[in-house]
Design a protein that fits this description.
The chain is 65% helix and 6% strand. With 508 residues, it is mostly helical. It has 2 domains: 2-180 and 341-501, Multidrug efflux transporter AcrB transmembrane fold (Up-down Bundle), CATH 1.20.1640.10; 196-335, no CATH class. Strands 2-3-1-4 form a 4-stranded antiparallel sheet. The longest helix has 35 residues, at 337-371.
């Protein structure tokens, strides 16, 4: 911020406003009884950059108005606030809707992030317009060497048809990667390579599996499992499970009984007698963890391998279910961390689809209100669609894991793209009110708002780039995906959107 604006007063005002927005959001979260979770831990940085986006646009509009009117002090600050508030309000609405779309998904951590995002978006707008205008009135407008040099009017008068077509074609090509999204990454992907924790986990995974899964089975005909025939069937099931490539180690009732049979003269006792002995305190009542008291259900404890897994976890569980069925048993229960991660991956995938669907539907309504023309609204929707196509498609082609933590990055980038679109559309509408029509209005709108669009995305990208310094790979991926999304935002808003929407605008 210092590099762009070169004003201590503005930097102090931005830091004070954004920090207040973060603390106020945390306070509201606490009063609402919401706890800090795996995703809401990053809510502070999200709210900070949302508030900062409002301030960047307001500051550039403040500089623009100072050149047009020559005003200073409170009058200039009030004019900048009035100029920026309408697009900021609609940006807040779109951002809130984007986060609200997460409230309808099944994954609870994503719902918690959705609630926090809605609160944070509203608080960021409130703090921005309640606090920051006072700092604008205190500061003296001047341009730094960073912002005073920019593209000429002739540059923005160009339509950039080849560049825009290239962006659209590249987005469609990257969209092929949507079919290759990895929403069920390996457990090893959550830890950095060549670190003690990752090395230890890989060693355990190579030697018997690292992810626990419990299968509870019963005889297909419902008979008890404490007789000789059932014991042989369970041995066959034990061997069949061990042969599956995704299974590392299996510990089950047949192994337990076989261990008990190693005692001298144990062959003289029935299987039921051995089971009762294993339920005694001197053996730690270990028998109770493998078979129910009525002897109708038995547990198989598996350690699943993560290193060479190529199928989703739920597909592997279905394979094991089929193995159980082929060996004369029925699967009563499949539980454990392995199954939990599989269900969570399924929820993340469905949350991506559901969240993007509702977000695009709600944005269609907002775009119609903001653009006030069918062509303008359609251009906004098409341009916005480039963001998920490029981001998720690129992630899929590069086989970057999409886990619960990195999945919301798409919603955040779409929110930033909407923010830039709304500010640009209001700039175009202002130009239309001043007598400019058609392409001239888009040229004037781009000239007025390009600094806010570019520098807002650059600052936001810098904020999320902090996550790259994390020791937690999912958080790193979250930051990198957002940084990549800001590049798509700039290209889509400054080049593709004007080309698609450059029709004659009615005065409004």
């Amino acid at each position: 911020m210092w590099w762009i604006f070169r004003s201590v007063r503005l930097v102090v005002g931005m830091l004070a406003t954004c920090t207040t927005a973060v603390f106020a959001t945390v306070l509201v979260q606490s009063l609402a009884g919401r706890k800090v979770g795996v995703l809401t831990a990053n809510l502070g940085i999200i709210v900070f950059v949302i508030a900062l986006s409002h301030l960047v646009y307001m500051t550039f509009n403040w500089q623009t108005l100072s050149h047009r009117t020559g005003n200073r002090g409170d009058a200039l600050a009030a004019a900048a606030r009035r100029m920026t508030f309408p697009p900021s309000f609609w940006s807040m609405v779109c951002a809130s809707l984007g986060f609200a779309s997460l409230l309808f998904v099944q994954a609870k951590p994503l719902r918690e992030l959705g609630f926090g995002g809605v609160v944070g978006s509203a608080v960021a707008l409130l703090c921005s317009y309640a606090m920051y205008p006072a700092f604008l009135a205190w500061a003296v407008p001047h341009e730094s060497t960073v912002t005073e040099v920019g593209p000429s009017h002739a540059f923005w008068s160009r339509r950039f048809v080849p560049l825009s077509i290239a962006v659209i074609v590249a987005s469609v090509a990257l969209g092929v990667g949507l079919t290759r999204l990895d929403t069920d990454p390996s457990l090893l992907e959550y830890f950095k390579p060549h670190r003690p924790l990752r090395d230890g986990l890989e060693y355990v995974d190579r030697n018997g599996g690292s992810n626990p899964l419990t299968l509870v089975v019963a005889a297909a005909d419902g008979r008890p499992l404490n007789h000789k025939d059932a014991y042989k069937q369970m041995w066959a099931l034990q061997e069949a499970l061990e042969q599956h490539k995704g299974v590392g180690t299996v510990v089950s009732l047949p192994l337990l009984v076989a261990e008990g049979r190693r005692r001298p003269l144990s062959f003289l006792f029935s299987t039921e007698h051995v089971l009762k002995a294993l339920e005694e305190p001197k053996y730690g009542r270990v028998g109770r963890t493998f078979i129910t008291p009525d002897r109708t259900q038995a547990a198989f404890y598996l350690r699943m391998s993560e290193r060479d897994r190529t199928k989703p976890r739920l597909a592997v569980v279905n394979d094991l279910r089929a193995i159980v069925r082929r060996n004369g048993f029925k699967l009563v229960l499949a539980g454990g961390i392995y199954r939990l991660q599989g269900d969570l991956a399924r929820l993340v995938a469905s949350s991506l689809i559901t969240g993007l669907f509702w977000l695009m539907l709600l944005f269609t309504i907002i775009a119609s209100i903001v653009a006030r023309s069918i062509r303008g609204a359609a251009a906004m929707i098409v341009s916005l669609s480039l963001v998920p196509l490029c981001m998720l498609g690129g992630v899929g082609l590069l086989r970057v894991p999409v886990d619960m933590i990195s999945a919301p990055a798409t919603n955040i980038c779409i929110g930033m793209a909407i923010d830039s679109m709304v500010h640009l559309m209001f700039g175009v509408r202002r130009a239309a009110r001043n007598g400019k029509q058609g392409w001239s209005a888009w040229v004037a709108g781009r000239e007025e708002q390009w600094r806010g669009i570019v520098y807002s995305d650059v600052i936001i990208a810098a904020g999320f780039a902090i996550f790259v310094l994390s020791d937690f790979p999912p958080t790193q991926r979250f930051g990198l995906v957002v940084v990549f999304g800001t590049i798509i935002d700039i290209l889509g808003n400054l080049f593709v959107l004007p080309l698609l929407g450059g029709a004659r605008l009615a005065r409004s």
